[in-house]
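Bug #77: duplicate submission created two jobs. Keeping one. Sequence:
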Amino acid sequence: MMVEDQLAKLDPKRQARAKEYASIRRRLMLLNLMLGGAYLLLWLLLGWGAWVRHALNSQVSGGLLPFQPHWILQLLLFTAALAIPWSLFDLPLSFYSTYTLPHRYDLSNQTVRGWVTDQVKATLLSMLIGTPLLIGMFALLRSAPMTWWLLGAGGYSLFAIVLTALAPLILMPFFYTFTPLSESYEGLEERLLRLSERAGTFVQGVFTFDMSRRTRAANAALAGLGRSRRIILGDTLLEQFTDDEIETILAHELAHHVHRDIPLGIATQVPLTFGLFFLLHLVLGWAVTTLNLQSISDPASLPLLALLFSGLGLITLPLSNAWSRWRERLADRYALAATQKPEAFISAMTRLANQNLADVDPEPWVVYLLHSHPPLRQRIQYARNWVALRE
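Kept job's structure:
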């Protein structure tokens, strides 16, 4: 545990590097979006989907399979034909974005072997989660072509809620090792548990996880729902932050549960999900006649569905980010009131900026489009204003 040192101060050199890093990441993100969109458009405009569907049908001339596959196998083979070439094409950009660049800016501790292992794990996890969802969606398209969107939106919303609850129990341990805090952190653990009790939030316990195997950045969270909820602290946070700073960070996370941000987020997301699925229903009906699809359950619609999901996600991103920034401001206010330690809050935000190489003052358009949290300089200034008002 680090000693209680002086309040952290912004490092001008790291802030200059933070702006460089953020700018490069934005350009890489834009490049990835453009390449991914172009890839899907090629499938649609050049008729690759119809060709693959034809090749997977043994009952027509030119079919490549010696047998007629079940519709589920045909769907999975089509998905593989769509996803594997893109994954191979995107691999160099992905490696540069998530391995080379963080190492260049001294943010990563990960080895190449560790990076490959994480990619394999992420792929397997995506397949385990995505395959049942994909099959379920196309089963609805086949069995209820007029009402599939209602059933699909409801099922997807329920699945998202369950996944949120199970994430700290099943998904996160897939990548990290969680251990209870050691006796040397007994005082901190008691403090955080008392803070949770005052907030009326049940937690299963306080755990640390091995962020340092991958990154030098620090983070903490209150993960899970109901009986699965637990406090998780990155080992990098424990090593570099004071107890008071960690308390203010955890108070911010507790605020999301006090303010019922997760149920509110679900309540706002569910109508959007139903609207999205209804729009997909309309577009699929149009595509049957325009894009030469055999039916709305034609696997050749997959490139179109992927393009729509991505495009609509980008369109709604500024709105969801604006909602998130509002809730984050309320959480900061709660953290200051609950702990009565504005200096520690300011120091924690400053230390996060230095350690995570976060740009404290990004351009307004960047905040509007991409940021789910207010800029750190605004959060620090809010805490200073809170001190002034209290005095």
